[in-house]
Design goal:
Low-confidence stretches: none
Bound molecules: adenosine-5'-diphosphate
Order of helices and strands: HHHHHHHHHHEEEHEEHEHHHHEHEEEHH
Shape: elongated
Strand order of the largest sheet: 6-7-8-3-9-10
Number of helices: 19
Distance between the termini: 67 Å
Mean pLDDT: 86
Number of strands: 10
Length: about 600
Amino acid sequence: MKKDNTTMRAFKQYNSYNPKYFPLFFLHTIFRNVSFYYSLWMSAEIVSGIYEGLEMRELYVLTAAALAGILLIRSLSAILDRQVETALEILEIHEAEAFYRKTLGLDYDKMENPHIRQIRSKIDENKRINSYGVVNMRYSVETLMDCLVNLAFSASLFAEMLSAMAVVPFSRTALILLAGLVTSIAAGIFFRIRGGKKGTLFWDSIGRKMMDENRILQGFHPSGTDNRIYRQQPLIDCLYEKCNREHKKAFMDTAHKIFCFIVVPGSVFSWLTKGFSYLIVCCYSTLGAFPVGSVIKYVGYMERMTESIQTLLGIFGSFQENEKFLADYLNFFDIENDMYQGSLAVEKRSDKQFEISFRNVSLRYQGSSDFALKNISLNLRSGERVAVVGMNGSGKTTFVKLLCRLYDPTEGEIIMNDFNIRKYDYRQYLNLFSVVFQDYNLLAVPLGNNISCDASWDKEKAEGLLEEVGFGKRYREMPKGLETPIYRNFDTDGVEISGGEAQKIALARALYRDTPFIILDEPTAALDPIAEAEIYAKFDEIAGDKTTIYISHRLSSCRLCDRILVFHEGRIVQSGTHRELLADDTGKYYEMWHAQAQYYA
Ligand code: ADP
């Protein structure tokens, strides 16, 4: 990507989210300027009229024309204003949508990649906290349009003033005043450009401070239970202080420099520009170049014109400063998925006969030197109940992620009904699985939507499943039934649910999809022992002919499975029924079983 194309590329992409916005903004800018220049022009006419002794009736007509014109222009401008606001809202919604769609559309391994996560959160934070990136680009484009329209109006009226001035002979006083005006404009431009650069530094340092503060706060749970119990306030204060210390110096230095070397001289030259403008216009007015009323309008035009030139020159610096943020934005959109997407249709089998084999499968996560899984070979028979056990970090979740093709193996292959799973249509392959991961999420929407993962739901089926997973009693207490919102984030009539209840809903959601495979990663960790026992007693019946994989730390709950796979340091070290595995008193399973059994004893 060529660097000088960054802003243009970003603008094209941003503009495509609502191509109506910028033309509407441009039109609105023209109206705003017409309104300003027309008011100035009419005021000058009225003052000149009074000065030249126009009759009262003529003055009334002139004033009425001025007011009617202003009213008309302002009304049209107000209508446009609403259109511009709506267009901006649409643009921002589409932009946010595109960003989230891109995120959701990324291959899972890309989304897990720390580098990509960092780019994503940088874009998000820069936008929210500093308004850098596309928001800054929008401000700059708007300012640019405003300057150009202003310049077009003020320059044509300035030309009119110059032609009036050319009538009277050029004097030495006029020359001195003109030299003063040009110098003060040039100095103003210089300070505006420098101010732009220093200002960016200043806001950058404020933004970075806010980002760091934001990260500190995000580390603490919003409900604040730990904060209260462990009295974490001193820790928060200490982190804040560290963050403040680091930013304070840069912040104060820049603020001081900006005030002394930019704000003060900038204001002085701005007033000098205005003063010279008045003096020149008054000088020519006394020499008879134009009537006294024109002093108001010509000073107004000159002021606008010099301001526009100064802003225009400053704006290019701001485009440049923003380029690195736009590059991050574009880089994120440029990330391409490279997971192979097959086109083979997954057979629709009502008998759920899908057999999956792992053949010498290994996986090494990106950036890791060690394999998380090494040489896994096994067959998953249709309708089988498989338990996966092992210590933390032994590779159980990684095994499930490979099975669901969230990752592709680094080595080896996974075959389903004679074909490598990479060959199948990805969506269709994913549709074979229902998984309750340990970090499952329920949404702050009605219970029915949570279970069906859709806009509507099958009431009978959802209620039946809630009953089966042991949520029946709690469900019947909910006055709005499946319409009851989960959590109170957005609805005051929502219900708060415990960890165990959430897990039951997640189980019902997995079963609702009615897929051939159901995978439960620590499915009962948050359940009380009675609820757990009830679910295990029933689960075999609920799961029916589905192939079921449980990852569990509670070995007692795996006893009834057809097969138990014991994972250790990324390998399957044992496989068999509970009875077979327990018979090997040198095996890992025996060791784990007896380690747990001693607590029960
Ligand atoms: P288990 O489910 O048995 O607790 P995991 O499958 O979650 O184990 O993890 C196996 C190994 O892979 C661990 O060493 C873990 O730190 C590592 N691991 C898991 N996820 C990632 C990841 N996204 N990136 C790098 N390493 C990972």
